[in-house]
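User: Before I run my own analysis I want an independent prediction to cross-check against. Here's the chain; please return only the structure tokens and, at the end, one sentence I can use as a sanity check.
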Amino acid sequence: MRAMLAAFREHIPEVSFTLLYQFRDRTLRLRFREPVEALPIVLPKTSYLRGALYTILKAVGVDERRILPPELQRIMAAYARTDLVVSAPGGPYFGDIYAHHELIHWWYVLLARLFKKPLFLYATSAGPFNIRWLNAIRRRLYSTFNCLVTREELSARYIEDLIGAPGSVEVTADSAIQAELEPYPRSAWFSGERRSLVERRLVAVSLNDFRYPTSKNPAKEKRHYNAVMVETLTHLAAYGDVHFMFLPQLYGRVHSDAAYLLSMAKQLPPEASWEIVDATLDSDTQRRLFAMCDLHIASRYHPAIFGNTAFVPGICIYYEHKALGFMQQLGLERYAFDINRVEVAPLCQALDEIIERHDALVAHLRERVPVLRERARRTTGLALRLLRAGGAA
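Assistant: Structure tokens:
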């Protein structure tokens, strides 16, 4: 999101944004450099029932906003004044894994058409699409986009197969890749009594507290995954000069993974060196910390991007195809592992290989990432072209 907003502002200095965000924790606020009005879409069911009635009336030409609660009135006002509606990076993610709230996101797509606004899919991921009754809705509403752009090839194929239109989706790269950030200075992070850690091999760790929602025995699967990850980290710790930096990815009163990371770290050998990074740090600071490290372990999507785009090699343990697609774009799918089939030996072998081939892998990333960066920036160019055409795409 930060990279997308910055890219738009680079080309349109006077731009302003309305961000529709899905935080269950109402106390959380994102801070941006750009002018952003943030409006929540986690609303009571009664609000959406009134929204459904409004939609019916709007479809027959009656704009009766007085029936809406104030929060939806503000959203409709934003649609009325906007020049471009963007389905933005990171979500909404249309596909079976998020089917329980997918219809809400499709409603916000439909609103763009009701207000006759150009509609752009900004390098998201999508799919898989195996729910038949929902696919009828998906096909209809994907056709309302003026331009479809995904961040990896797997999602593009899912959409094209769904709508029966090969070649209709442009593939670029994840929005975050547009941004370049300098590594955080080790001497600033490890100061005072921690100064000796400057010379250690730093490993950025982002573990997903994965619940195995489609498994017949999720508790067993989760115990196996946790045990594998602890043993893998223990293997790395045996190198002797390693310091683990556990970086939380969820923060707030409703969702937080800091306690989970702490529980995993405490299972490491007593002599292992580690820390839990402050969960309140923003994404830019986290990216700089990833860039400060020597290698990374990521079982979440964006940490894999943060590490690799900072030229820090590592392994990616993916639970959705979007992360596998990213590793394929890098030509490093050798270091991508399905979270449903993780085992200690392959993970440790991959990490040993990364340590042995570290300089060659860094050189590979320095060659490949700029190519993806240009592809990511192309997304903004396509959106600007649509904006200037007024939706005639």
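Sanity check: DSSP finds 14 helices and twelve strands in the chain.
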